[in-house]
Amino acid sequence: MRKTMLLACCLTGVIQANAQKIYTGLTAAPELHSVTFKSNTSDPSLKRGIDELNNSVTGAFGCSIGITGGISLSKRLSLEANLALQMAGFNTKPYIISIDPGAPATTSFEEKFRLYYINIPLMVNYKVVSVSRFNFYASAGVVNSILIGSERKGTRTNQQGQTSRVTDDIIFAEGYKLAAMASVGAEFNVAPKLYIRAAPSFQYDIIAGWNKNSAAKGYFWNTGLNCSVIYKR
Residue 50: pLDDT above 60? Predict the structure, then answer.
């Protein structure tokens, strides 16, 4: 108990000492999402099916919106955390999984997957250089994602050309995933204490976000343009 109280007092002291260095803001990003499936088996027929699935995957546009906050540790270094709602997912072109190459193809699939997350990115920002009212910086960190909703819409076509549509929420996304993130960007001082920021970013799953315990694990990735309005005390 005493150690906990001491730690709390230390954290309070750090925050108070750096109160003038805290910043907050709003952030939003248009994003392009996709997934890469990787084989978790030595079975050649399953590997062939995974290759066909990867060849069918196409990107899907998504977005995120949220709040951000950080604390400057020095003139160049800062820690930042966000809380954001994200719409992600991916699409597929018509594909056929050929598990047994000797068997006739019976059904082709065309699907759209939409995933909804609460994201908590934790980042370290490093200011590389300042030019006039511009600050240029690089960031790296991790993104914790909690799945809050999902949807699949698909069309299946058999050999006779008959189609059926499927809409459900039964997909194989994991409830939690962890991704690595890196970005570079610039911020512009538009007014005293007010900045606008733009930063292209890239994320890739560290922990598979799709069927991580199956023969076909899926690793989500996305690229986006993070745009923020920041207020610095």
Answer: yes
Q: Could you tell me which residue, 229 or 3, shows the higher pLDDT?
A: 229
Q: Around Cβ 219, how many Cβ atoms within 10 Å?
A: 19
How many residues does this entry show for the chain? 233
Q: What is the DSSP string of the chain?
A: -HHHHHHHHHHHHHHHHTGGGEEEEEEEEEEEEEEEEEE-S--HHHHHHHHHHHHHEE-EEEEEEEEEEEEESSSSEEEEEEEEEEEEEEEE-SB---SSTTSPP-EEEEEEEEEEEEEEEEEEEEEEEEETTEEEEEEEEEEEEEEEEEEEEEEEEETT--EEEEEES---B-SEEEEEEEEEEEEEEEETTEEEEEEEEEEEEEE-SB-TTSSEEEEEEEEEEEEEEEEE-
Measured between alpha carbons, how far is residue 88 from residues 32, 81, 171 in Å?
8, 20, 14
pLDDT digits (tens, 9 = 90+) for 201-217: 999 999 888 887 777 78
